[in-house]
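Sequence design from tokenized structure. All designs in this work follow the same two-part layout: the structure record, then the generated sequence. An example of the structure record is given first.
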């Protein structure tokens, strides 16, 4: 994990397009902020065991108290998935009748510190576009559950034809959600919205450009969170644009003015510019409008696979 910031900076000219935020930043409205705070609650709910290992009709709830709006909306499980693949991709499809949304949510990792330290992040061809390369583990996590999820999504959408599809995730779940949304947009769900909180980079410049061009992408980073800095630029990975960069400190209420919208697959005015990924900064990874992974319980991030 000892990579210099100079190496990261020098990779920019080859790997991505750095865009200064003062040229292409834009304001976040209070309505936008309310949306951001609402959809992250589904990501928070995905860490609660009773939600991703439940039965159809189960009402979403969070024992950590971090999804009160979702609980109030009465969102219910239409389909859940966990413990069925080697990657243990977990999450659920929920129906939110209050907001007329079908929400596909992926749980984040219970062992983030381990894959930050040990993962090699190899590429694979996701067959999404010419020249596109995706991170193997993230793509495999989606591909292994794609068929049953797509079948369940199509069935649920047929029952609710006027509902929008929202794809959500935090951390590793955000990476899987990003690739799932990109894939599903070409599989009958072109207007799927993505809310990716604390996502690592998922692919090379060709893939990032492809997903960016699809629109409806809301990718969030927070101060010096180390996870969005991975895989490294020197490995050829860049981000989907834009970046919604949260500048407020940990455990603080996020206001609209605390979020800067930055364009470009590499932008050093946001999270990337805060230095190399450091595990001592991991507290910033938890706080995305709230403690997004509060349902994990103490100690689990170090031990679960």
């Amino acid at each position: 994990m000892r990579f210099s910031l100079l190496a990261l900076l020098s990779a920019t000219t080859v790997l991505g397009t750095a865009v200064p935020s003062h040229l292409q930043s834009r304001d976040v409205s209070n309505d936008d902020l309310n949306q951001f705070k609402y959809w992250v609650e589904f990501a928070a709910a995905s860490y609660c065991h009773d939600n991703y290992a439940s039965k159809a009709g189960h009402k979403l709830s969070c024992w950590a108290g971090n999804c009160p709006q979702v609980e109030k909306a009465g969102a219910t499980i239409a389909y859940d998935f966990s413990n069925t693949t080697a990657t243990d991709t977990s999450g659920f499809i929920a129906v939110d009748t209050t907001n007329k949304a079908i929400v596909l949510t992926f749980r984040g990792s219970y062992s983030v510190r381990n894959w930050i330290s040990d993962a090699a992040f190899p590429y694979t061809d996701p067959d999404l576009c010419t020249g596109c390369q995706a991170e193997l583990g993230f793509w495999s996590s989606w591909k292994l559950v794609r068929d049953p999820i797509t079948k369940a999504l199509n069935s649920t959408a047929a029952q609710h034809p006027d509902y929008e599809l929202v794809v959500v995730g935090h951390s590793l779940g955000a990476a899987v959600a990003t690739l799932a949304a990109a894939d599903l947009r070409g599989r009958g769900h072109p207007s799927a919205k993505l809310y990716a909180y604390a996502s690592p980079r998922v692919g090379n410049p060709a893939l990032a450009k492809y997903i960016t061009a699809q629109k409806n992408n809301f990718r969030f980073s927070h101060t010096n969170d180390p996870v969005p800095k991975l895989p490294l630029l020197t490995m050829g990975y860049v981000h989907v644009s834009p970046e919604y960069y949260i500048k407020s400190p940990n455990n603080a209420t996020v206001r609209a003015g605390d979020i800067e919208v930055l364009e470009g697959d590499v932008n050093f005015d946001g999270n990337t510019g805060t230095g190399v990924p450091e595990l001592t900064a991991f507290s910033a990874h938890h706080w995305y409008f709230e403690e997004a992974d509060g349902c994990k319980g103490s100690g689990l991030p170090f031990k679960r696979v």
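The radius of gyration is 18 Å. We note this feature because it recurs in several other targets discussed in the main text.
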